[in-house]
Amino acid sequence: MSASSDKAPGQREPVPRAIQTVLDALEKLRFGAIQLTVHEGRLVQVDVTERHRYPN
Q1: Who contacts 30 (Cβ-Cβ below 8 Å, separation ≥6)?
Q2: 15 pLDDT band (50/70/90 cuts)?
Q3: How many CB atoms sit inside 10 A of residue 25's CB?
Q4: Is 42 contained in some domain?
Q5: Is 30 part of any domain?
Q6: What is the structure's pLDDT at 8?
Q7: Averaged pLDDT score across all residues of the chain
Q8: What SS3 string covers the chain?
Q9: What digits encode the pLDDT tens for the residues 27-54?
Q10: Structural domain of residue 41, as residue ranges?
């Protein structure tokens, strides 16, 4: 955080939307994969593959 910020002490910066999308996917996912697509150093796409497992 820079010295020129007008946030109160202890107040956090807002989480960027892309990062929040990844965090939400991680929270919900039990089995599967999360694939991040990056173009020119920026996150542009999040793909979530969810696996459902059933007992035999």
Answers
A1: 50
A2: confident
A3: 17
A4: yes
A5: yes
A6: 67
A7: 85
A8: CCCCCCCCCCCCCCCCHHHHHHHHHHHHCCCEEEEEEEECCEEEEEEEEECCCCCC
A9: 999 999 999 999 999 999 999 999 998 9
A10: 17-50
Q: How many domains does the chain have?
A: 1
Is residue 28, in this structure, part of any structural domain at all?
Answer: yes
For the whole prediction, is pTM greater than 0.85?
A: no
CA distance 23 to 55: 28
Q: Please, what is the end-to-end C-alpha distance for the chain in angstroms? A: 52
Region at 8 (left for phi over 0; alpha for psi -120 to 50; beta for the rest): beta
Within a domain: 23: yes
The tokens of 12 are what?
Answer: 């956090």
What pLDDT sits at residue 53?
A: 85
